[in-house]
Amino acid sequence: MSSINIRVQVRALAVEDAAAIEQVVGFLMAGFAEHWPGRWPDLETARAEVRASYGADRISRVDVDEQGAVVGWIGGIAEPDSQGQGIGQALVADFEAQVRSRGGLTIWLGSDDVDGMTSLASVDLFPHVLDHLARIRNLRRHPFEFYQKLGYAIVGVLPDANGLGKPDIFLAKSVARRDQAPAVPASPTSAVQG
Ligand SMILES: CC(C)(COP(=O)(O)OP(=O)(O)OC[C@H]1O[C@@H](n2cnc3c(N)ncnc32)[C@H](O)[C@@H]1OP(=O)(O)O)[C@@H](O)C(=O)NCCC(=O)NCCS
Questions:
Q1: Domains and CATH numbers, the chain
Q2: By three-state DSSP, how is residue 166 classified?
Q3: What is the pTM of this model?
Q4: 60 CB near ligand 1 (under 6 Å)
């Protein structure tokens, strides 16, 4: 497991924190541009995504570096120039603590593949969808493996969720079972290791 290479603090992203929000919007536009083109077609769409993360029943948290600059957001993005330094890992660990403190049992997330990053893309997954899932391979650093390293298990796939051959891959982790061993894929086939 990677160590945190830059000193970061995780804090809530407040609705009035316009500067931080604009930094997050910038990451969304830049960080998703290569593999998820069109995900945020313009700044207003990205702003709407960040605004949708507020509310009493929501958790919207950012990583902040020593200078106070935002370097990651729990919506699934680390500052593009700072990736691979433990920012994503710190955000996810903080999010898990937030969920656990609110009595949550399981975290569930979807991670799209719209750019042929895994063996589940650009093929017809029917009718043996689960066979394809059990044999998933990471071809171009799709983030499902990032989540696996943090203890998430692949629990499903929605074929063609984003168009033909563009599935959504689902992962989940128990935050209630503290004694659950992290980061060890438990698939009998071991094929989900990427
Ligand atoms: C995915 C993302 C959030 C990860 O954040 P990060 O700060 O770069 O990741 P970390 O440095 O905390 O990495 C933790 C571990 O995951 C691994 N990892 C990170 N991204 C990975 C990827 N895309 N594929 C495989 N492994 C990955 C790291 O190598 C590290 O492994 P190690 O413990 O063996 O050293 C970040 O790369 C990002 O913003 N990517 C672009 C947008 C994206 O894909 N978001 C996810 C949408 S579901």
A1: 8-101 (3.40.630.30), 106-190 (3.40.630.30)
A2: coil
A3: 0.91
A4: no
